[in-house]
Q: What sequence folds into this?
């Protein structure tokens, strides 16, 4: 049985610079915590709403944008500023625990 | 000095795909990331550069002949292909002095924080490449690397000051406290702020506001790279006199190039991450326990729908301007979604889509002329460092929607004067820009203060 990976979205303007920075920072920490079965996708901002239907979490780099997403949302700003990353990771882990990988 | 010139020439001869990894590995080791990580990052940087050349090559073989046919068929001298930010960034990193911008930015930031001349800690290391671009443009036009570095230093200082002067304006727009925008793309607040005040006086504009969110949903698809690329490719092919098959083929090839460019750019990001992280940690460790404004890259403001709506509504206008502006040589393509215009406009107008769109329409010529003037330095460097042959039927490459056109044009014109004794008509731009920087600067601080009051913060400085 393959564990189905959970999709976490990160989006920025073009889906390139900032979202990749955040994606890598999250990935490194998930590896350090030994959390598996997570796919982090860096996407262009305009795609976030549509792709949120298939994700378990959207790490929003422009929070307060007033858009309705299909999945839970958290602010990704701490991953950019470097301040408050630990708290943000706790929030992220909590979201992942809510959605354990389907066996 | 002789040794340095020889070293630079040797580096240029080896080519960026080889030199960049070596520099990267050395810096990685310097930052203590360990050999494996440094080697991987370094290699990835070389791969990124070579990869960008692959896509550029593909673009040149498809758009190159089309753009010459376009010029012949229409008589319009649009001989500089606008390739957009991603390949321009890659070319910038190929400049021999590129990596020196990291210590320059970090050093100035630390010095200014220590002297209390700024409250902003700029952790956006990716956009160091914007300073590299300024540097290579000014160095080429003024014939002096020293002059280029002086202006890059000035740019860094301006960025930190504009961040200080607008942090509450940012929070007012995005709801995120303590985050500032040093990014040079914001710089055209110097013209958008006065324009905004002017628009306050025009009843139709002042009394009408439109909800950008609904519009964003409807037309957002046009901002997607494969769609905008396809449409522009088709347009160019039509005016180049192609037949139906040629038109559709160019459309798809253009869409391909614009989609692949950013994908390759992600390789750059990943490769530069060790430097970015190391630099950030270094900066933050210097001032423990102190609160600053954190300078970030622009996407934290991407939620402002006007940015996207105005950029799309601007596409036909941008094309029109490039056709009618006398002396323009840039054929809009990669930079057709002019975010570097709509972002500062949207921030200054608080996401007012009508004003943002109008301001963008009015001010586009500034960006287009910057693209025209800087086509030569960009093309020259690309020819020097790239592994790709820019084919004979492509005269120039450029970027039609770059950051801070007025700042860059001013630096280049003044640099031209100091370095070559040449008095260029663009010096007028420099004069106006300098005046506006101080005049609009006061307005920026006023708007910032208004935002601070609105947010319930008490301003104790400035």
A:
């Amino acid at each position: 049985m393959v564990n189905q990976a959970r999709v976490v979205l990160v989006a920025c303007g073009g889906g390139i610079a900032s979202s990749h920075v955040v994606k890598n920072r999250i990935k490194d920490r998930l590896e350090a915590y030994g959390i598996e079965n997570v796919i982090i996708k860096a996407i262009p901002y305009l795609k976030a709403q549509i792709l949120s239907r298939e994700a378990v979490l959207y790490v929003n780099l422009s929070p307060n944008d007033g858009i309705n997403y299909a999945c839970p949302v958290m602010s990704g700003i701490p991953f950019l500023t470097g301040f408050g990353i630990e708290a943000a990771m706790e929030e992220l882990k909590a979201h992942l625990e809510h959605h354990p990988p389907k066996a | 000095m002789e040794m340095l010139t020889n070293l630079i020439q040797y580096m240029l001869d080896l080519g960026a795909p080889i030199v960049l990894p070596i520099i990267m590995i050395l810096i990685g080791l310097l930052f203590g990331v360990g050999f494996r990580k440094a080697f991987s990052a370094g290699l990835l940087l070389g791969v990124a550069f070579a990869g960008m050349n692959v896509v550029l090559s593909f673009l040149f073989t498809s758009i190159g002949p089309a753009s010459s046919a376009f010029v012949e068929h229409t008589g319009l001298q649009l001989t500089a292909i606008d390739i957009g930010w991603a390949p321009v960034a890659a070319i910038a990193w190929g400049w021999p002095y590129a990596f020196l911008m990291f210590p320059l930015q970090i050093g100035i930031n630390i010095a200014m924080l220590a002297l209390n001349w700024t409250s902003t800690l700029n952790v956006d290391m990716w956009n160091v490449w914007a300073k590299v671009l300024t540097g290579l443009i000014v160095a080429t036009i003024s014939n002096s690397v020293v002059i280029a570095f002086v202006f890059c230093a000035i740019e860094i200082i301006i960025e930190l000051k504009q961040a200080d002067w607008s942090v509450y304006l940012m929070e007012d727009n995005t709801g995120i406290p303590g985050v500032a925008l040093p990014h040079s793309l914001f710089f055209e607040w110097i013209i958008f702020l006065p324009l905004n005040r002017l628009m306050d006086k025009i009843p139709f504009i002042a009394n009408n506001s439109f909800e950008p969110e609904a519009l964003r949903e409807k037309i957002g698809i046009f901002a997607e790279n494969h769609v905008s690329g396809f449409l522009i490719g088709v347009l160019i092919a039509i005016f180049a006199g192609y037949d139906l098959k040629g038109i559709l083929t160019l459309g798809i090839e253009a869409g391909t190039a614009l989609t692949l460019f950013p994908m390759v750019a992600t390789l750059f990001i990943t490769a530069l991450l060790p430097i970015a992280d190391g630099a950030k940690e270094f900066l933050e460790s210097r001032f423990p326990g102190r609160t600053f404004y954190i300078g970030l890259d622009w996407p934290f403001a991407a939620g402002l729908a006007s940015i996207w709506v105005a950029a799309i509504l601007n596409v036909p206008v941008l094309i029109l301007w490039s056709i009618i502006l006398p002396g323009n040589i840039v054929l809009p393509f990669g930079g057709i979604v002019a975010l570097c215009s709509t972002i500062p406009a949207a921030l200054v107008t608080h996401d007012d889509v009508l004003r943002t769109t109008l301001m963008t329409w009015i001010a586009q010529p500034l960006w287009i002329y910057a693209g025209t003037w800087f086509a030569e330095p960009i093309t020259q460097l690309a020819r020097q460092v790239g592994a790709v042959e820019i084919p004979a039927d492509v005269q120039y490459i450029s970027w039609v929607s770059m950051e801070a056109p007025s700042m860059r044009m001013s630096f280049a014109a003044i640099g031209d004067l100091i370095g070559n004794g040449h008095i260029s008509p663009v010096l007028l731009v420099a004069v106006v820009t300098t005046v506006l920087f101080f005049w609009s600067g006061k307005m920026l601080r006023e708007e910032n203060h208004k935002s601070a009051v609105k947010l319930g913060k008490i301003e104790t400085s400035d």
Notes: Chain A is about 40% helix and 20% strand. Chain A has one domain: 6-98. Chain A touches chain B at residues 11-21, 24, 42, 44-47, 61-67, 75, 77, 80-83 (CB under 8 Å). Chain A has a mean pLDDT of 85.
